[in-house]
Amino acid sequence: MNSAKGKGKYKDIVIGGDSGSSSRTKSIHPPIETHWSLPNCEGKRTSSFLIKSLLSYPLMKLRRSKSMQVILEGARDSRDAQVVEDFRKMLFIEGLLPPQQNDYHTLLRFLRMRDFNMAAAKDMFLNYLKWREESRVDMLPKEFKFTEYTEVKKIYPHGFHGVDRDGRPVYIERIGMVDPNKLMQLTTIERFIKHHVSEQEKTLRVRYPACSLASKRHIASTTSILDVNGVGMSNFSKPARYLFMEILKIDSDYYPETLNQIFIINAGSGFRLLWKAVKTFLDVRTAAKIQVFGSNYLSALLEAIDPGNLPTFLGGNCTCSEHGGCLMSDQGPWKYPELLEMIQAISMREGNDDKCENGDTVSEDSLTPKKVDIQNKNEFLTSLALEETTCMLALQKINGLEAAIGDTKNIIKKLEDALQNTKMALEELAQHIEELKM
Ligand SMILES: [Zn+2]
User: Fold this and answer.
1) How far away, in angstroms, is 318 Cα from ligand 1 center?
2) Is the pLDDT of residue 36 over 70?
3) How many domains does the chain have?
4) Which residue, 291, 386, 430, 438, has fewest beta-carbon neighbours within 10 Å?
5) Model-level pTM greater than 0.85?
């Protein structure tokens, strides 16, 4: 199969469709975080050390270095920023940009997925908005509780576990252990899909920001391991097939560019046969991010993931025995209370943008995030720095909108001028007709 693996090999690779269909070609972009990362990741220290150093970072230094903003937002590529700005204006002028989706990285993901073709990205983005509304995605945290989760996990072990060597969340699924019939007794396809969407939303809202803060670089994609031991045509029943394809479709249509790579491991002859069929349905770029291994996968996994972050059943050192197993623990930076408080503080401030307009003169009261217990001076200072970052982001958004309004005003002015000219020409013509009549 095609492989885009290996450091420094990501330049625009053009791959041809090898599915036997036609000459599908698409360029493979480098990982989404590439040009956003900090120039120096300060080696491989432990996450808890990094968090401590982050929390005790002097406010003035944070302000000057802008490192907090770079961590959360990434250093932007100027060409990308321009295209995103143009895309944003186009959607805004047409009234197609809800404020909650007016986010730089969301827009960039859709543009990248469509090779920066504005019209194609717009179609995809509108399709995404329609789906969000129809599926009530924003209401899921309130309306949907996956109460059967623990039972489902027992027969379908899956979940997030730790981070890869670059700090991305690692998602593991032991799909070969699933008994589709038992699964359908515990839940329904509809509920399982809702659960999947809820997890995707949590990854965007909590896991990526937490991983970014922990690894001090912008994180925006996931590394996945799919253990297909025992999977073949026989146990891939119709409902299982439907569920699998539905989830693939949701991920590629509505959460584009969030996949770093997938390791499919323990693939036997049955799976390889199945894979040939499934692969033809996959987006070429997605297919290029997937590597299929037999039982000889460990060295590839260890190249990407530290053994401490890898469960023993995959050849690593982690057992998460206190949680009843690695796939029950959901362990990772998104579980660290300090990071969750910081993320909560940011999201709370985002709902309070109107207080930020005056930058330096925000009252101390409005700076203290409600519900968040500020335990010491350092945390308070960090939250001050976060305030500032949030204000800057809000101001950037406002500036973008103002620019778009300015452009619209110019267009209206030009139309008015043109109308005025037409009016004058018509008046002249009328006068001319009058003269002719006389
Ligand atoms: Zn573990």
Assistant:
1) 4
2) no
3) 2
4) 438
5) no
